[in-house]
Amino acid sequence: MIEIESLSRKWKNFSLDKLSLQIKAGEYFVILGPTGSGKTLLLELIAGFHIPDSGRVLVDGKEVTHLPPEKHNLAFVYQNYSLFPHMSVKKNIEFGMRMKKIKDPKRVLDLARDLKITHLLDRNPLTLSGGEQQRVALARALVTDPKILLLDEPLSALDPRTQENARELLLDLHKKTNLTVLHITHDQTEARIMADRIAVVMDGKLVQVGTPEDIFENPVDSQVASFVGFENVLKGRVLSADRGLLRIETGEAVIDASGDMEAGDQVYAFLRPENIALSKTSTQSSIRNSLQGRVTEVWILGALVRVKVDCGVPLNALITRQSAEEMKISPGVPVYAQFKASSVHVLR
Amino acid sequence: MIEIESLSRKWKNFSLDKLSLQIKAGEYFVILGPTGSGKTLLLELIAGFHIPDSGRVLVDGKEVTHLPPEKHNLAFVYQNYSLFPHMSVKKNIEFGMRMKKIKDPKRVLDLARDLKITHLLDRNPLTLSGGEQQRVALARALVTDPKILLLDEPLSALDPRTQENARELLLDLHKKTNLTVLHITHDQTEARIMADRIAVVMDGKLVQVGTPEDIFENPVDSQVASFVGFENVLKGRVLSADRGLLRIETGEAVIDASGDMEAGDQVYAFLRPENIALSKTSTQSSIRNSLQGRVTEVWILGALVRVKVDCGVPLNALITRQSAEEMKISPGVPVYAQFKASSVHVLR
Amino acid sequence: SMTFVFSLILLVLFLFIFLTLSNMIFGQLLGDFSGLIKAVENSSVMGAISLSLYAGFLATLLALFLGVPTGYILARFDFPGKRLVESIIDVPVVVPHTVAGIAILTVFGSRGLIGGPLEPYIQFRDALPGIVVAMLFVSMPYLANSAREGFKSVDPRLENAARSLGAPLWKAFFFVTLPLSARHILIGAVMTWARAISEFGAVVIIAYYPMIGPTLIYDRYLSYGLSASRPIAVLLILITLSIFLVIR
Amino acid sequence: SMTFVFSLILLVLFLFIFLTLSNMIFGQLLGDFSGLIKAVENSSVMGAISLSLYAGFLATLLALFLGVPTGYILARFDFPGKRLVESIIDVPVVVPHTVAGIAILTVFGSRGLIGGPLEPYIQFRDALPGIVVAMLFVSMPYLANSAREGFKSVDPRLENAARSLGAPLWKAFFFVTLPLSARHILIGAVMTWARAISEFGAVVIIAYYPMIGPTLIYDRYLSYGLSASRPIAVLLILITLSIFLVIR
């Protein structure tokens, strides 16, 4: 368990401002935030590489704020893995045991087998692929059996295919060993897939903590909303509110949404492009918006197509190439943009 | 018009091997190939920065193979834009005119207006964003009114949003000025969107030339096929062939495809993940394959979900998150993998 | 802690250098200021110091003329024997100073390979040309290496871009490559000049006369002892350091 | 073309350095080989050369002891006045050699700030310690700068990783940081040693005797002329260059 109490620190261009956070034992906790938001600084403060300007860090109830890093007893894996380039993979893994004077050669071999790096033990780390380096870094960090694992952007140096395997590996490790994992990333998809809970950090401040559902379905403010992928931001006014069902006027369109606003409220409606479907025919219903409009721009992005539709308000939709071809989507074509009322996220 | 005749050159780790190619006047021509395939070397040979070991380069019918680069009369824009950091944006754009002793200040201003960089003219290029730098580099290259524009990976240094604008800009420029554009890239989507014609270069050799449709629907060999996104590669045997409609046995499945093979032929069938739809119900027809299978792995990739299905052969499908949720796709779930016979590309 | 011990050692090193120089300088300024004034008023002292600065300047000019093109070739082209050429150009840095003097005298003396044929036209021994050649020999590598690093730091694609815009190679060099490596070359020139005017051993062998600053200091020290040579030493270093500060 | 002209200039520079050294060396080897043999058999010649190598070795050891911790602090920490400290540590490179000698004599002479109190225990003037101090003063910056660059090239995250694995700072330093900057430090040590044994001006002022190689060359040149000093010069440079080649 990690308790962070009102932690502040300025360092180079980064700063953290009175950040408090509790991470439960055994949790897979992800800190999500854009590049430069101070995430790595936070991780380095927890690991003891920096001393905070104010505030405390407690690990399992014991204050470690001013202890040197070697007394924090947690495993730390950097984005670039930071393997020692002058030691073999085996020596890298044994390093922690040498420092802590633990003799247990079997543990190195067991861990190497679990992480599928037995065949790499005599290699130099510089000759390994990104995915292999990561597994070695994990073995090195876990060999002395720490209870807490800190991961600094663990997937961002890997190519997409290796990322898939690495995610699986990390979740597996977490499940099997009952580790508390604190993982930082700027990638919302990664956070959504992996986290038990997520904290969103922006500009050195904690903005929201919650389950992935909380964060991705109910972002607390517009900054979080657009960071987690609600690209369509519609400014409007609530026309009527009836038991949670809102009618909102935005631009020259009226949309249905759900929320606890009142008639007359000025609101913002957030909508993900992938939640907007396009159709040649209208299929109106009480819980489904269907706005008539006209395609203004089309961009093919591999298997997906991004379509801008003018429905009185401009909407960005993301559809498959196949359906774009079937509907012969191109600028000027009339379409209906359809989305569920429940996929509109409304904030004041 | 550019004619390349049997061009060979070894340089560092790159080499070109007897490459011949003709680019027509006014064409938007894309050279597509993986990193390290020698694309940039080819472009630098055309521009005269290297002398080929053998072969010739002709521009508008005139041989330029051994002329120094300043006599090639073509515009060259590097991936990093290579703006002169010790000159203002304006001086950068004027450089070509200074060298060619052309005095026409209006041309600089007109071009700056067309490329929307008038407000940047007094800035230092190092302070510009990637997209701005690219527009300045284009202005600098085009100010002396060349007939041919060579682009070295022009989009790969830009973030995705800026890429969209840059594509539009390049296509616009091409349309308005009747420039011959030779654009190299490793990105198949970029090639597909932008090219009039595409040449695929691999390991220094020309593998295929054709329209985007030719390349992406009818790759000549398995190397090109998997490079342009046919991720599913099924090895099989033609059971029957009837007026272009093939039945192919692969693994424990039989699929329909089209091609001019004969019964008994050993073939490879290529299939894009985005062309495979998943469904809970079978909708068999003569031109649509529908293979019964079971989900083995699921990976959420933002708005898309990648699903591995075992249908007697393993198939990778790419579907939207929405439909994955509606079908409650998860490992173990039975599904039908459906794809048109026409989206199977068959090669011997 | 380790950091504390290391900081103490840094302090010792700093004090060794700082005290050694400041003790001499302030000892002179505070203890015997009139000696310094006398040195300034002495024409042979000022003549020797001026000669140091002037000969150093000439050596630097020659070094620029030879070192800038050399640096460019080494930065841009590969050729067989390149590593040997680079090593030879670096050798003067490690040659003991009087050995360099003997070598220069052998070649540029009146019976030497170069000095012999040139004897009717130019005198090296005990003359300004000899001083300049000795200074050039020991300081040359600084300029050639700086220029090479400067040119290496300029992306060749900038040169290519200039050429595709219509610049022949020499225009690309003068309008793009040279301005962008000017800082490196300037720093190299300052180091070359400083190395040239600091030289004693190589110069004293080919030309005891006319005396440069370091030779005069040695001469006074031998004839009249420490107190007679120290004012000149202080004067020389103060002038050198202030020229440095001005250039930076 | 420009490339051709530049290549010619490179050739001139190369020949200037190569001919100067090879003319002296081959002139001796081919023209007066017996003179070289006599020098090898002469005990005062071999004694002076050995003293050069030995004193240079001691200066390098001291430089390592002082320069490695200094380089680490400068690479890893920011503190007020850091730029001043770095500048002062670099000053010996630009101090004229006889000026350095005068400064060292001022401080380490028998009436000096340090030499005075130490007089009963250790003699600097005309003694090995004086030679070593003079060599250390002029060569120190090479080691401190190399070590600093070496430590800068080691990612601090490697140190952090070692510490999170249970290593206190000094173990992280000795097991991770130091081995990874060993190459830089070794190159710095070789340069320091080369600079130390090449010094003449600073050494000759604090200690004409016991004679080091460069001093003996100068002494023989003054007393007996070029032909008497050249064999020693050739011997010294051959020994120096071969030690270099062995180390590299």
From TrEMBL, chains A, B:
Gene Ontology molecular-function annotations: ABC-type tungstate transporter activity; ATP binding; ATP hydrolysis activity
Keyword ATP-binding in record: yes
Key words of the record: ATP-binding, Molybdenum, Nucleotide-binding, Transport
Superkingdom to which the source organism belongs: Archaea
Its EC number(s): 7.3.2.6
A cellular component term, taken from the record's GO annotations: plasma membrane
GO terms under biological process: molybdate ion transport
Catalysed reaction, written as an equation: tungstate(in) + ATP + H2O = tungstate(out) + ADP + phosphate + H(+)
SMART domains named in the record: AAA (SM00382)
Enzyme class: translocase
Main localization of the protein described in the UniProt heading: membrane
Membrane topology according to the record: Peripheral membrane protein
Subcellular location: Cell membrane
Domain Mop, first and last residues per copy: 284-348
Segments forming domain ABC transporter: 2-228
Family stated for the protein in its record: Belongs to the ABC transporter superfamily. Sulfate/tungstate importer (TC 3.A.1.6) family.
Subunit record text: The complex is composed of two ATP-binding proteins (WtpC), two transmembrane proteins (WtpB) and a solute-binding protein (WtpA).
Protein name: Molybdate/tungstate import ATP-binding protein WtpC
Species: Methanosarcina lacustris Z-7289
Lineage of producing organism: Archaea, Methanobacteriati, Methanobacteriota, Stenosarchaea group, Methanomicrobia
